[in-house]
Structure formats: C-alpha cells, structure tokens
Amino acid sequence: MSKPSHGEPSGSRSLSPPRGPPPEAAPPTEQLPAYSETAPAIDQDGNGFPSNSNITASFSNLALSNSPCDPTPHTCLAHLKLLFAIQALKTDVGYTDGLFGLWDSRAMVPASQWNHGAFRDEEAKREQLARIREKRWAIYLARAVHRYEIWWMKGLSKKHLTLNDMGSNGAAYGGFVTGGEKDEMKWDEGMLQLPLDVLMVWHTHMLNPRAYLEDCLRSGHRALWLAGIPWHLINSVIDNDDFSYHPSDEAKARWVARTELQWDNVDDPAVMEIRCPNCSHVLHVPWTTCGTGGEEGKKQAARLDLVGHGYGDGGFRATCSGNGCRLRLDRNLLSVGKFVADAKDLLQQARPMPGTLLDLMSGRPVPSQQPRPLGFPNRMIQRRMRSEVLDLVKPRGVIGVQMKDIKDMIEALVKDKDAVTEIEREPGYYIKITNLKRELSPFARMAVRKMMSRYWENFSPFALDLVAAVLRQGVFIDKMCKVYTPFGLLLH
C-alpha cells in the first residue's frame, strides 16, 4: 500500500457489520478480529505466520490449471497464499498511522473522561487504538467495494438479462452455467489486472455462490462465471515468503486505463460522487467525516468519533444542494433509489427484478414458458404497481419515501385476493382457490421476500452487501492465519 498521508478517505461503511446481515447470510456470532497495540510480525516461527521453512517449498511448485477444476491440494495452497496476502494487507492498512485522517494519537482520550485527569487505563487505550485501526480497515473496505463495482460495470463486457431470455435454454439464461471450452474466458497475465483490494472483494463475492450467480446473470457476465478464479495467475503474483502482491506493470496500466481508477486504493479521490434519487443532481460526499486532516490533524485533540457521516461511514447522511432540492440522503433512501431504478428497468427494458432469477428450490436458472411463482414480483410491479413506481421516478417523487413504505405497499397487495387474481390472470399452480377467491401460494410469497431482501441495508448493485460480507470473511481469515499448520506436509 502506498503512502498514508492521503489521509483522504477511501471508503468503508461502518466499523462493525451492518445492523442486519444481508439476507441468506447468518449473522456473525463473534466480534470482528481486533488489532493489537503493535503490528504483528509477518514471519515469525511460532508467533504469527508459519515459518518460511515450512511453506516455501510447497508454495514454489504448485501445479495449477488454467481452466476451472475441482479443488486440489495445490489450489488449496494457492488459496491459502491469497488469504495470507489479504491478512497482510489488513495489517498494513490498519497500522498505517494517519490513513484517512485517523491518527493513533487520538486514542489519548481527553483527561476529562478519566479519573483525576489522567489516562490511567492502558487497556482502555489499547482498545481505542484497536477501534481506530478497525475503522481504517472499514473505510478501506467500502472503497474497495466501490472499486470492484466500477470494474464489474466498466471493466467487463455485458449484455443485461431480460424476461424474454428467461423462457429459453439459451446462453443468456438456461444454458448460462454450462458451456464448452469455446465459451470459457482464458485468463492470461495481462487480464489479471486487479489490485489486491478488488481481488479480495471478488473472492468474497464468489464465496456467496447464489448471490454471485444472480449478479452474473443479471449483468450478462457468463464468461466470467465459467472462467472461475485464476489461481495459477494469483499464485504467480504473490510472494512465497512474505505474501506481498506484485502484478506486472502492464496489469497496473490496464487497470487504470479500463476503470479510470488508481492502482492503489488510497490514491483514489477522497470524495465519492453519488446521484440524488430525487433530482438527479450529482453530489460530492466525503468517504468519511471521522478524520482530522493531514499532519496537523495529528496534533488535534478531537473527540474520538468513529461513526461518522461520510459515504463509507455507518451513519452516512448528506443533503442535496441541487436546484433547491434539499433532500436528506441516508442509507435507507439510497436503498429506495435502488428499488426505483430496478423497477424502472423492469417496466422500460423488461429486466427482471433481483431475487427473481434463480429457481427457489435448486438455486439454478430454470427456463419456463409458463408463469411461475418465481416471477410473481415482476408481474406484480408490471400489472399493479406501475403507476406507483412511475410516480416515484418522477422528479421529487422519492421525498419522504422509505423502504418500509414500499414493503407496506407490497404486503397490502399480497393480502388482497382480488389484486392477486388480477396480477395472475393466467391460471397456474402458484394460485390456490380459497372460498372461491384466489390467494398467493407460499412459493410466490417466498419470491417476494427474496426480492425485498436485496434492498434491506443494501443499496449496492449486488445481491448482498459486500462490505459486510468481507468483514465476516475477515473473521475466518484471522483465525486461519493463527493456525500453525506445517503447510509443507500437505503435499508430501
């Protein structure tokens, strides 16, 4: 990682995982791995990472395929190298004093908060330092997810899925997960143009296979899905001794050219551009408001507030300054904006809503020419919510609207048997007759819940909140790096 001084925010969202975990993910039962007061050594026998003598021999001669394959001991070792590289990155970010304007000196809590005007509790000081370092990492993660989003949208070719595609066995849907050698993308060194922070987010995204498949389907990233993760290339750019990450200069240049982002996370701008969902004015908001600026900020005895109101902070809020709009933006309103944008794409371009793509039982794309429970949310918006959605997308239409309002609107429709009958004009097994009136089947209700789950505490274009997912994955990585397994024995 490059110089910290940028102090200029990068992104994160919150210090701890969001209040509610993304749907389909169990909440973590343990606290996030805490930073210690001093940075741990990367290579210490019996105290940190395994010694070089145990692992270098095995890491140096891994037989890794250029094509997707079932896991082998060699791919597992390459995976371990990536996890160690991610842990080293986390350590580097957390212990970079002054990064994002967060200085260790702020752990010296004002004397007024302590007995007799003295900071007498060293343990409390260590806890404050750990919180500051976790905050640096959280901001870095939010920035990393944004960078991954840019790569996903700009750096990859795509053809968005439509409702018509879902009725066929073509490559866009029914045949999406299967393909011959000609359909697979062949990775070469120049193609692995991902900084380590973006690679980390992609790795976590893939560890949530249903969400990853849904996102690949919606964006038309079939070649990416079939190609899998290029372990042979990842292994080649991670050092066997200290797990540092060293892609080629060509890869770095390609990243900058295709995404218009810097190679190093902390070199990207300190502000984030977002579009107001009410008036479409572009706002420039800081990634965090918790920092105290450059070197001078180190001397400030500012109150230690690690919640913040920046785009990467847990308490994000901003006020639109466009055309007298004055709309107050927060996470909830951005989720409303995501729902409105997706519903507009459904109405105007026939793009299915998130959560309505994969079979509810198998989790795979199963084409059908007949209406089925999975598609009920799409039909509901098309046939009974069109005017309400179009009102929301009008200028100033989202003022005062909350996700709870949309939830209440949908619940009322689902309970209205006459409305259900109108929505489901064609007879089918997703309707059952009760006292001569039709009501929604449990599978159709499940489809509605699946769709709505994509918007709770998640305003990203993905099926899950990737910042929270990376934080959860970090718990596992932290534990794995504390296991002193003699990796060299795995291949002998």
Write up what this structure looks like:
The protein is mostly helical and 492 residues long. It is globular and about 65 Å long. The strands form three sheets. It has a two-stranded antiparallel sheet with strand order 1-2. A two-stranded antiparallel ribbon has the order 3-4. Strands 5-6 form a two-stranded antiparallel ribbon. Helix 2 (73-94) packs across helix 7, helix 3 crosses helix 4 (196-206) and helix 4 packs across helix 15 (466-480). The chain folds into two domains: 52-259 and 292-305 and 463-491, no CATH class; 355-453, no CATH class. It has helices at residues 52-60, 73-94, 122-154, 196-206, 209-219, 222-227, 231-237, 249-259, 331-349, 376-384, 386-393, 403-415, 417-423, 442-453, 466-480, and strands at residues 271-275, 282-286, 317-319, 328-330, 431-434, 437-440. It is built from 15 helices and six strands. Residues 2-30, 42-50, 114-119 and 484-492 have low confidence and may be disordered.
What brief labels describe this structure?
single chain; 492 residues; mainly alpha; 2 domains; two-stranded antiparallel sheet; two-stranded antiparallel ribbon; globular; disordered N terminus; disordered C terminus
